[in-house]
UniProtKB/TrEMBL annotation:
Residues 12-71 form the Antitoxin Xre-like helix-turn-helix domain. This is DUF2384 domain-containing protein. InterPro entries: Xre-like_HTH (IPR046847), Xre/MbcA/ParS-like_toxin-bd (IPR024467). GO terms for molecular function: DNA binding. Residues 76-130 form the Antitoxin Xre/MbcA/ParS-like toxin-binding domain. The lineage of its organism: Bacteria, Pseudomonadati, Pseudomonadota, Gammaproteobacteria, Oceanospirillales. It holds the Pfam family Xre_MbcA_ParS_C.
Amino acid sequence: MAIQHNTADKRREMGAAAMRTYPNISHAWGLKESEAALLLGVPDSTYRRWKQAPGNARLDANHLERMSLILGIYKALHILLPNKEAANSWLQRANRNPLFAGHAPMERLLNGHVSDLYVVRQHLDAARGGGHA
């Protein structure tokens, strides 16, 4: 029982920390609130509640996985593109890589599938020379 309680406490702490950070990332990426919610896989109303009160955010394993991938994408972009504006706009620019077929990577992310977050993260990690950000 103590282990389950400890895990729930840890998940609550991670969720609160993530929701204090994520709105800043979504703003830097130029996302609308509905798009930020979609990347997390939650309804707009849930995202607004979590954003207003990060300590009350209840992120499940899926949300935490999405958040981890988003944070990794953000970090990788800022390593690959030290210019802040270039890093934050990369997702919005058309990309000729076959993964994106001439579209902006954000278009792929806005499909709402965790697998698309993973593909973009993996692409950026490969550009960095492998390994996770």
